[in-house]
Amino acid sequence: MKVLLVQDVEHLGKTGELKDVSGGFGRNYLLPKGFAVLATRGQIKQAEERLAAQQRRSEASRKDAEALAARITALSLHFTAKVGEQNRLYGSVTSADIAEKLGAELGIEFDRRKIELEEPIKRVGTFAVPIRLASGIEPTVTVVVAGEDAPAEEVATESV
Predict the structure, then answer these.
(1) I want to staple 133 with a disulfide (CB 3.0 to 4.6 A). Which of 64, 65, 145, 160 is the partner?
(2) Which of 37, 62, 87 is at the close of a domain?
(3) Which SS3 state, helix, strand or coil, does residue 46 take?
């Protein structure tokens, strides 16, 4: 029996795949639970059209992410904070701070969870912070942290 999967089914396949299953499995499990429909020409054509539309959408979003990655790579975010001994900050620069400033620079709402900062920045310096936009697209933004009294040229360069 040929069926078209409507949902992902563990150990069988993903949504939109055409599968050949035993009659009992299809009639007694897949069809009543709504996991699959009988594979007719119309159903197969609809599935192909949905797959093509999904690929077009994912390609468009990938192009948008690549354009955003180019803009992010060109940016340099500057933060100033109070500094104590050994160039350590009294506070810290967090992923939320970076997301807020990045969103303001780009003119969009930016999610702090996309910023891959293992721990908050607690030192004066220049840091390369990776940002996860999409699968395989991870630009880095330069974050410069300077003390309120120290000039920006005296900060050290580091990678996060």
Answers:
(1) 65
(2) 62
(3) helix
